[in-house]
Design brief:
The structure holds 2 protein chains of 2 kinds.
Chain A (H helix, E strand, L loop, with lengths): L6 H36 L4 H15 L3 H14 L6 H27 L2 H9 L4 H31 L11 H12 L2 H35 L1
Helix pairs in contact in A: 1-2, 1-4, 1-7, 1-8, 2-4, 3-4, 4-6, 5-6, 6-8, 7-8
Chain B lengths: L1 H8 L11 E10 L2 E11 L4 E5 L6 H8 L7 E6 L2 E2 L5 H9 E4 L11 H13 L3 H14 L15 H13 L5 E5 L7 H16 L3 E5 L3 H7 L2 E6 L2 E6 L1 H6 L4 H10 L1
The chains are: A mainly alpha, B alpha/beta.
Amino acid sequence: MIRVFGWNEFLVIVVAAQWTIALSAIAFAGGSIGGLLIALMRVSEVRAFRLFATGFIRVFQGTPLLMQLFLVFFGMNIFGFAINPWIAATIALALHASAFLGEIWRGCIEAVPKGQREAATALGLRYYHSMRHVILPQATRIAVAPTVGFLVQLIKGTSLASIIGFTELTRQGQIINNATFSPFLVFGTVAAIYFLLCWPLSLVARRMETRFSRATAR
Amino acid sequence: MNMVSEIASAPRSRGASDPAVRMEDVNKWYGSFHALKNINLTVGRGERIVICGPSGSGKSTMIRCINQLETIHSGRIVVDGHDLTAGGRNVDLIRQETGMVFQQFNLFPHMTVLENCTLAPMKVRGITKAEAEETAMKFLRRVRIPEQAAKYPAQLSGGQQQRVAIARALCMNPKIMLFDEPTSALDPEMVKEVLDTMVDLANEGMTMLCVTHEMGFARSVADRVVFMDRGEILEVATPDTFFDAPQHERTRFFLGQIS
């Protein structure tokens, strides 16, 4: 029996957006911590750290997100963990975000003029204080716009988690579509919700970008 | 008896008898480029040294080795009795005892003038914010810009920024001040205010090593002028001898070029 796509079906899809938001938020939080570590390793004076970070970034930038999800999802099983789409999706997306944020933030750290680090060093500030009080605050200002831009990519990327059976926005759309068979309406709704999540962020990113370029133009 | 043992032990302990900086056979390469060639220089306490020479002659590299912004490949540098080449902790100690002023000021743009001056004393020396601010205001008054304390570097003129940079370095109570072309990035009308500040500092007995092309400053303030070319020290002389009777051919050529 084919159901009609009505108000109830619409609401079910809207409610599923919360899982997309939750997954994005957790992946972004994990990716921020990982990304900071990767960025710091990438600009480290220790060669081993630099090599590890570079390899990590290359692997995650050079493979599709879908494969990363598959590898974590099935890999967990091989290493003796129960298959859990939630955990697999979170880990895969957080690792993915770590690599991309790491590379974005490396660029931002390197964009801080070399003289800043030298001045801090000449004043006797060691690595931690010089990073924490001098370099990172300046890098953060440069980083805001590209970071928000990446967040938009990440939100859209969470749709791939539907393939490993994680019921977020896209997966809920597929389920409703199987019952109603109105693909255009269903996926139109899904796309519209993604747009409503991402568009304001894009606006914010663009605003910050212009504000930053105005601030640095001087 | 006592005196004898004191004299005998004097060179071993650090004290007033140690020179401020002693460089022995220092060599440095950038790849195959020999940036510093057998540098030997001893700077006494309270001595004012001006280092000059054509660009690319290794002047900046040499003073940047003193606080280890650059590492050396051979030789020895001893600053205030601490051997830099022994590494590790000595490097931290020396950075705390030497202040440096850069051509491009290198103030921290996201901090106010006051915060620029208090950061290192609080984080490195571990003194309280109140103490650090008190010291900072003392030195900002000394460089004659206490009224700018709450402003950000971008709101100041180049000359003011450089004076803040001097105050920031002084807040760590350094024993030695290194100046790396402090007036080269300034508009001509601002050079004087920075030089005046440096003259004040010299008059107070600070040990200073200045890389500069300000020959008027060299003549009036320096105890000795060091001339470098192609990574070597060619001539070390008092300002009078240096300017009026330079020994070396290349020194004469250089002085002819800049005057």
